[in-house]
Amino acid sequence: MSCNDPSEELDIIEEDEIIVIPVVVHVLRYTPAPIDVSDEKIHSQIAVLNQDFRKKNPDHVNTPEEFKHLVADVGIEFRLATTDPKGKPTTGILRSEGEITGWEGFKENENTAVEDLKLFFTEKGGQDAWPPDKYLNIWVADLSNRHGNLGLPGYASFPGGDPRTDGVIIDPRAFGTLPPLNESHQRGRTATHEIGHWLNLLHIFGKNNDCEAGDFVEDTPSAYSQYNGSPVHPQSSCGSHDLFMNFMDYVDDQAMYMFTKGQKERMRAVFTPSGPRRALYEHISK
């Protein structure tokens, strides 16, 4: 993951250019405790992404006055793929059933071999990634804890990793805006947050309990730790008010509603000539 200042190359892509990313959604229905994910639920998630990344989400007006000038239209949109890797028509939605959960794509440490991550391999009961130089892969898979409740809403790969695992993984209870949904994840913001990581954003707080560990974005105030739930502004740490309503914190969906201009710059930098997602940009720009 690059931590370099992206501003030097940003002018290569026009600031007002809208980048449209094809999406394939891999739905893995967990047979022992199935949670249905309808086409409508998937479309509701795509709609949320297109609001959040274009500053069209109505709740962005809730941004506190001191931060309003930072709110950005990132200029990125998402569309379900209409052509598969072989050039055939597709809905952009793939479905399978079995006993693979989202945990079987979670790399617990650096010693875990990619080949052991069954989620990403059709022959092992999961679903193969479509080429990440042409698509954003989203796997919707069960991430329950041992009690059957939501254990983790989602996780993502950063740019530059193994193409076989490139994408975002989200539990169905944190996906889209249609039920079933976890009470803290009802507005589809888990995908917004995780795709932020996929586009090279770090958490707004950088690293917990460390005011010096930032997110390499100039306009996001340093924060000592993450926020959860629905905090009320102002909250302070590290000598300034915290931007907990940013999509890259851990607050509930209804409490997050903005990216900053600096985050926009960092995300769009992945598509520049030396950026890790340049091949995707070149493909969608043809």
Residue windows where pLDDT falls under 50 for at least 5 positions: 6-11
State mean pLDDT (0 to 100 scale).
94
Task: Give the overall form.
Answer: globular
SSE ordering: EHEEEEEHEEHH
Number of helices: 4
CATH topology value: Collagenase (Catalytic Domain)
Query: Main sheet?
Result: 6 strands, mixed
Q: What share of residues is helical?
A: 10-25%
Q: How far apart are the termini?
A: 26 Å
CATH-level-2 architecture: 3-Layer(aba) Sandwich
CATH class: Alpha Beta
- DSSP summary, beta strand count: 8
Q: What is the radius of gyration computed over CA atoms, rounded to a whole number of angstroms?
A: 18 Å
Proportion of beta-strand residues? 5-15%
Whole-number tally of structural domains: 1
CATH homologous superfamily descriptor? Collagenase (Catalytic Domain)
Class of secondary structure makeup:
alpha/beta
